[in-house]
Amino acid sequence: MRLLPYLLASATLLAADLNLGKPLAIKAPVPISTLLENPVNYVGKPVQVKGKITEVCQMMGCWMQIASDDGKSIRIKVNDGDIEFPKDSAGKTAVAEGKFTKTVLTREQAVAQAKHEADEMGRKFDPATVKAPLTRYQIEGTGAVILSN
């Protein structure tokens, strides 16, 4: 019986949300599909998104891909070392904030970026799969919460 309070406390600790980076400040998330369908309305502005983590950088934990229920997804990218997303968090739900950005890459830049990402994930890479120019929308992450449930 004396162990029960400790077991309950341990279970509570295990079930806690994981807060990363700065505390979330925006009151409600913008649907990922809304961001991607109307990007001009959001570029350069702070946004919050919520969804299931589908991938995490396996080298540095410097990015995670979040998908909504409708299958739309967006990358949350942080500077190496600012935040480290847990490499085993795919499948969990996350809420993330940061500045919504647009980057246009030449074919050469897109190939280099795709090769780098393949290396990070331990995948084979075929440059022929890269089409150019490539416009990439992502969130420069400032904070995130990985939910326990």
Trace the largest sheet across and list its strands.
2-3-4-6-5
Count of separate structural domains: 1
Percent helix: 10-25%
User: How many β-strand stretches?
Assistant: 6
- Give unreliable regions as ranges: 4-12
Radius of gyration: 17 Å
* Pattern of helices and strands: HEHEEEEHE
CATH domain class name: Mainly Beta
CATH architecture: Beta Barrel
- CATH homology superfamily: Nucleic acid-binding proteins
DSSP helix count?
3
Given helix and strand content, the structural type is alpha+beta
Largest sheet: 5 strands, mixed, barrel
How does the SSE layout of this entry go?
Layout: H1 4-14, E1 18-21, H2 32-37, E2 46-56, E3 63-67, E4 73-77, E5 93-105, H3 107-121, E6 134-146
Parallel strand pairs: 4-6
Antiparallel strand pairs: 1-6, 2-3, 2-5, 3-4, 5-6
Structure description:
There is one protein chain. With 149 residues, this protein is of the alpha+beta class. It is built from three helices and six strands; from the N terminus they run αβαββββαβ. Strands 2-3-4-6-5 form a five-stranded mixed barrel. A hairpin with a 6-residue loop joins β2 (46-56) and β3. The two termini are 28 Å apart. The model is unreliable at 4-12 (pLDDT under 50).
